[in-house]
Specification:
There is one protein chain. By secondary structure, this protein is an alpha/beta fold. About 30% of the residues lie in helices and about 25% in strands. The chain has 4 domains: about 1-125, 3-Layer(aba) Sandwich (Rossmann fold); about 150-225, Alpha-Beta Plaits; about 235-330, Rossmann fold (3-Layer(aba) Sandwich), CATH 3.40.50; about 365-450, Alpha-Beta Plaits. It has helices at about 10-20, 35-40, 55-60, 80-90, 110-115, 125-140, 170-175, 180-185, 220-225, 245-255, 270-275, 290-295, 315-325, 340-345, 355-365, 445-450, and strands at about 1-5, 25-30, 45-50, 70, 95-100, 120-125, 145-150, 155-160, 185-195, 195-200, 210-215, 235-240, 260-265, 280-285, 305-310, 330-335, 350-355, 370-375, 385-390, 410-415, 420-425, 435-440. A 6-stranded parallel beta sheet has the order 3-2-1-4-5-6, sandwiched between helices. A 6-stranded parallel beta sheet has the order 14-13-12-15-16-17, sandwiched between helices. Helix 6 (about 125-140) packs across helix 10 and helix 6 (about 125-140) crosses helix 15 (about 355-365). It is globular, with a radius of gyration of 23 Å. It starts with a strand and ends in a 5-residue tail after the last helix. The model has no long low-confidence stretch (mean pLDDT about 90).
């Protein structure tokens, strides 16, 4: 697949590296020589220096033959990305995607308008990150959770604590302790340990620090949480460190759901701006949230969740550690340096948010067969969750799962069929129009995609 990316900023560079690793032909446009040089240092991609909305530059980058054009130019107004995407479409690009920074563009009416103009996807990374944070607070016992079909199926991530009864327990022993009803409600699908993700076998032992990936029906979640020794503690009071775009959007969303939402913002002018923009129920405090004494004075011990969203990864991680020491049960940190994600989790941060990974998932599905509805990169592993809609006649429907020679480093976790959902097992036979949730390691993606193409 030929892919042209407009913008060698943080997100554009990450997409270029990721998409090139999937054997795509990638070209990146930017007018900043330093950004292009930095990208060339670690990614084998073609680069074109020039104005991103210049027709001659777009022609030079080969957009006329591009299968996918991605407009993610950094530090500019969204109009540059929109214009570039529209020009690329007119020049011949098959599919075009544009980054925006205005929620109004994402309304159903406006999305339809832009789609009619030729832009297949408009995405706002900060809004996606805010939505994911709000979603993470709904499932307070798991580190991360993804809903399918409005929660009929859930894929969740649990950390094995030092005191957990699951330490040194074999998977087989865990399964044998389940009731027959429970085996139909959830299953363990993968484990991440020492930065490696594995599909466990029956003799695999759980270890302290493991991240365990599970799939569950809605009615099985309570039982699953009990087996992991977690407690469902409702979130009522939230403290947000950092009045960034994401912080503002999270506060606005939570203000209608929770009793108490407080933002700590260091910059006085930004604090005043937030006070005028946010609902009266959100308390904005001007102060240094990196000061533990200040957090104590602001009553951090009384909060159920702490969300760190400053522009410093290090401050976000460390402030979450401090919040934990003060007894806050749920912590969330924005960590944009991917190399720091594992560190954050090892230091006890419950949920790590990374805009690049969220964006990558939204875009990666456009490189697949067209039947992929949803792709999500998991922050705690190198794995991905993919949801497919099964087209009539595709290979996945030809036999029971155990007879399909499905890739070893992937597992079909669950199936949604009409109004029903169920956990997939070896005897499961996938049917036309099923929605299928798959847990997969990156090297298997192209092989998986073949199963969902029509013959």
């Amino acid at each position: 697949m030929k892919i042209v990316i407009e913008g060698a900023g943080e997100i554009g560079s990450h997409l270029a590296k990721m998409l090139r690793a999937e054997a795509n032909e990638v070209t990146v446009i930017d007018n900043d020589a330093r950004r292009l040089s930095a990208l060339n240092a670690y990614a084998d991609v073609e680069t074109v220096s020039g104005n991103p909305s210049s027709i001659s530059t777009l022609r030079s980058a080969g957009v006329a033959k591009a299968d996918l054009f991605i407009a993610v130019y950094p530090f500019t107004t969204q109009e540059v990305n929109i214009v570039s995407a529209l020009l690329a479409k007119r020049l011949g690009a098959r599919k075009v995607i544009a980054r925006v920074n205005d929620e109004d563009c994402l309304s159903a009416e406006n999305r339809l308008l832009f789609k009619e103009l030729g832009i297949e996807l408009m995405f706002y990374p900060e809004k996606s990150a805010a939505d994911e944070i709000v979603q993470s607070l709904r499932q307070v016992s798991a580190m991360e959770s993804m809903d399918f079909a409005r929660g009929k199926l859930q894929i969740s991530v649990f950390r094995i604590d030092e005191e957990s009864a699951m330490v040194d327990l074999r998977l087989q022993e865990f399964v044998q302790a389940l009731t027959p009803e429970e085996t139909m409600l959830f299953r363990i699908i993968a484990i991440t340990r020492d930065e490696q993700t594995i599909i466990p076998k029956f003799d695999t032992k759980f270890q302290f620090g493991d991240l365990v990936f599970t799939v569950s029906k809605r009615e099985g979640m309570a039982s699953l949480v009990k087996h992991f020794g977690k407690a469902e503690k409702p979130i009522g009071k939230v403290m947000i460190l950092g009045g960034t775009q994401i912080g503002e959007m999270v506060a606005r969303s939570l203000s209608s759901q929770l009793a108490t939402v407080k933002i700590i913002e260091k910059d006085k002018a930004r604090s005043m701006e937030l006070t005028s923009r946010l609902p009266d129920s959100v308390l904005v405090v001007n102060g240094d949230g990196s000061d533990s004494d200040f957090l104590y004075e602001e009553g951090i011990r009384d909060y159920d969740a702490f969300i760190a969203l400053t522009e410093s990864d290090e401050s976000n991680i460390l402030s979450c550690v401090v919040a934990r020491k003060f007894g806050v049960s749920r912590t969330v940190a924005e960590v944009e340096n991917i190399e720091y994600i594992r560190l954050a989790e090892e230091m006890g941060v419950d949920t790590v948010i990374n805009k690049k990974l969220i964006t990558a998932g939204k875009i990666f599905k456009f490189t697949l067969s067209g039947k992929a509805r949803f792709v999500k990169y998991l922050s705690g592993s190198n794995a991905e969750i993919i949801e497919y809609t099964v087209a009539p006649g595709s290979a996945i429907t030809k036999a029971p799962l155990k007879d399909l020679n499905f890739p070893r480093n992937a597992i079909i976790a669950g199936v949604i069929r009409g109004s029903d959902s169920f956990i997939a097992v070896g005897d499961t036979r996938i049917e036309d129009y099923d929605r299928v949730a798959i847990f997969a390691l990156p090297q298997t993606i192209k092989d998986i995609d073949k199963f969902f193409k029509t013959s």
